Amino acid sequence: MKAAEEIISQKGIVETTISEIAHKAKVADSIIYQFFKGKQDLLFSIPAEREEEYFSLLDEHLQGISDVESRLSKMIWFYLRYLDAHPNYANILFFECLSSKDFYLSDGYCIIRKFSAIVLEALKQGAAKGRFNASLDLHLVRDVILGTLGCECVTCFALGETKETAPDHEKIMRLVRAMILPKEEPEKSKPDMILRAAEKIFAENGFTKAKVSEIAKLAGVAEGTVYEYFGNKEDLLLSIPVKHFERYTEDLLQVFEIQTPLKKLRRFIGHYFSLFLTDPDFLQVFLIQLQLSKRYYGTKEYDSFKDYFQTFEHVVEEGKEEGCFREDVDSRVFRNMFIGSFNNLALRWFILGADKHFDKMEKINQVTDLLCFAVTVSDED
């Protein structure tokens, strides 16, 4: 496998032959077939072989770190540092293994799943201890983090945007902290709480079966308080769309001319998701066969993708200039966070077929919120 890792990282799996690997390993071709079914089996076994070393070293680095935020930070640093130190393996993992749909069904994918589980557990521990925002969908936060790390590696090893990925560690952590640290929620007015509760009860039970007492209980107010603000159950029902359409009308003013960087950012994220979700065939081709191909980044066709995301980076810089976004946000790293988040979610939804029974639009809205938190909320908040 050591010989295979060296040769495949240089030539690619297609150009590599079993004979070359055998010659490098100083064994007969037949010896390789005693242990592996063929080239693909040998290739997919490389990450699995790395597993013991990787997690042993990770465990060593985490020893003595009890603070959950520090542990998460160390995990992120170690992931980047390990791949920086093993560029042949990084090239194989991203541009040979992850670019093959068959890899996701192999034992070699275990190192990805195991690291994913460790990151998720750290997030859960932080939320349980009150260090991280417990109201967040921690599975989505995990996907954002893993996607960011993956995109950092791809742009480093394929584009050469940076010589190494580990120096971006603190820039990534500033974005991650802004997403996950607890935030002081604005105090909701009693009418708003009542309306939100009424909306839920009416949706579940219908107007006729809904009881004001149930609405009051869900809103956390006395039943008499409901009648202080709304004359009767019908008035309550009629009041529900008012708040929504006031917000819709406000948003409508910027539909044709969006002026604030934050709204531009939200619109860009929504637009990118919608482009691919409405064209799943293109998504699969672009996600696996192009974005995880080193050759793609050296072609003139890549310019169209690069130009598209220059707009994204311009929005971030505009937000920084206007004081809407934090000055310490690195546009390149945040771009990688967005692309990586999308790639990781799309992979799970459409390639692996996971999480079929949920509202994708709701998940997209949550991811959009996380990404906006990352640039607009300071680390200290």
Compact description:
By secondary structure, this protein is mostly helical. It contains 18 helices and no strands.
Explain this structure.
The chain is mainly α and 381 residues long. The protein folds into three domains: 2-132, Orthogonal Bundle (Tetracycline Repressor, domain 2), CATH 1.10.357.10; 190-252, Homeodomain-like (Arc Repressor Mutant, subunit A, Orthogonal Bundle), CATH 1.10.10; 261-376, Orthogonal Bundle (Tetracycline Repressor, domain 2). It is built from 18 helices and no strands. The protein has helices at 2-11, 18-25, 29-35, 39-62, 68-85, 87-97, 110-128, 138-159, 169-180, 190-209, 212-219, 223-229, 233-252, 261-277, 280-290, 302-321, 331-351, 360-376. Helix 4 (39-62) crosses helix 5 and helix 10 packs antiparallel against helix 11 (212-219). The protein is elongated. The two termini are 48 Å apart.
- Compressed to H and E, one letter per element, the order equals HHHHHHHHHHHHHHHHHH
Per DSSP E runs of 2 or more residues, the count of β-strands stands at 0
The CATH class label of the largest domain is Mainly Alpha
Q: Shape from CA axes?
A: elongated
Mean pLDDT over all positions: 89
- Judged by helices, strands and strand pairing, the structural class is mainly alpha
User: Distance N terminus to C terminus?
Assistant: 48 Å
The biggest sheet amounts to: none
Total individual domains: 3
Query: Can you give the helix content as a percent range?
Result: over 70%
- Unreliable stretches (pLDDT < 50, length at least 5) are none
The named CATH superfamily of the largest domain: Tetracycline Repressor, domain 2
